[in-house]
Amino acid sequence: MAPPLARVVLPLGVAQTISWGSTYYLPAILAGGMARDTGVGTPAVFAAFSAALLLMALLGPFSGRLIDLHGRRVLVASNIVSACGLATLAASSSYAQLFAGWLLLGAGMCTGLYEAAFSTLAGIYGGEARRPITGITLIAGFASTIGWPISAWLDASYGWRSACVVWAAVQLLLALPLNLLVPQVTGAVPQRAQGENPPPRRKRHMMAALAFVFAATWFCSTAMAAHLPRLLQEAGASLALAITCAALVGPAQVAARLLEFWLMRHAHPVVSARIAALAHPVGAASLGVFGVPAAPFFTFAHGAGNGVMTIANGTLPLRYFGPGGYGMRQGLLMAPARLLQAGAPFAFDLLLSRYGVGALAMTAALGLCSFAVLMLLPGPGRSASS
Question: From CA 264, how far away is CA 25, in angstroms rounded?
Answer without folding.
Answer: 29
